[in-house]
Amino acid sequence: MIEDTQTENFEDVQYIKEKFSCIKKEIEKVIVGQDEMIEAIIIALFADGHILLEGYPGLGKTITVKTLSRAIDAKFQRVQFTPDLVPGDITGYELCDPETRKSTVQKGPIFTNLLLADEINRAPAKVQSALLESMQEKQVTIGRETFKLEKLFTVLATQNPIEISGTYLLPEAEVDRFMFKLRVTYPSYTEEREIAERQVSDKEPELVVVLHPDEIISLRHFITEKIPLHKESEILKYSTRIVRETRPNGDGDEYISNMVMYGASPRASIYLAKAARVCAFLSGSKIVLPEHIHKMAYPVLRHRIILTHEAESQGIDPDDIIDTVLKKVPILEADALN
What we know:
alpha/beta; Rossmann fold; Helicase, Ruva Protein, domain 3; five-stranded parallel sheet; two-stranded antiparallel sheet; 16% strand; globular; disordered N terminus
């Protein structure tokens, strides 16, 4: 349980923002650059969302997650996804004693706070689907028993965008369960030079625990209460219209209909609102503004937009579709403008 003094501190918005900054600083003791990735990971953590990290090898994806787990004193497990992996390697399995004829359950690495699914696209769909129940319901079924996972449970999966041989496409049902898809890019020259200097010095940075898992759960509730989103909220209507505009239909935008095969699901509407609320809170705003919706739209929507062959042949990216949608959708509904 959280001490009363800590609970009182949660009433101080500045205190929470400082905690957010401290987590970021702890990660930056190890990771150079990648500010957008670090900030988005922390936002997803406070918004209770899973994250898909896409980037070339050696860009710090794995070490970022490990460092985050140390900064929040969370249990951490890493699973290297390979073609020979089976679902039980993740969730666990039943063991039967031939003498007593009794079965016991051996829990897998999924029983943790932060689960790093490294190179998730190297495992076949049967293994990837082992994560579906845990990501949505935060529970795991092993044999005939169902087990609850930790209250703080987040899946962070990595994948290499250039690998084709020996990889598998992620099932759309699984992709849709990730709140964010983050693109991890190469560092600048200055950042890369600093990375090299740190590594050759061979000094291990001392990390400080900023928050604990139970505190993060309390902070999630606090942010929800501090910035409520009622069903008649104009910003909630706005974010929902943005998501709906990504879907092709006969009466909609011709450009979207030609370039998009499938748009974002209703789950995207939920995630966009939740992520924008945390983004607004951490930026010091008392309400969610359109700028917060716009900032979160890219990581929330880019992996949910399936392009047509025509769009791919023209080199169009999901982010280009999101640009078009954000420019087109009015902040207020037509009825409100009249």
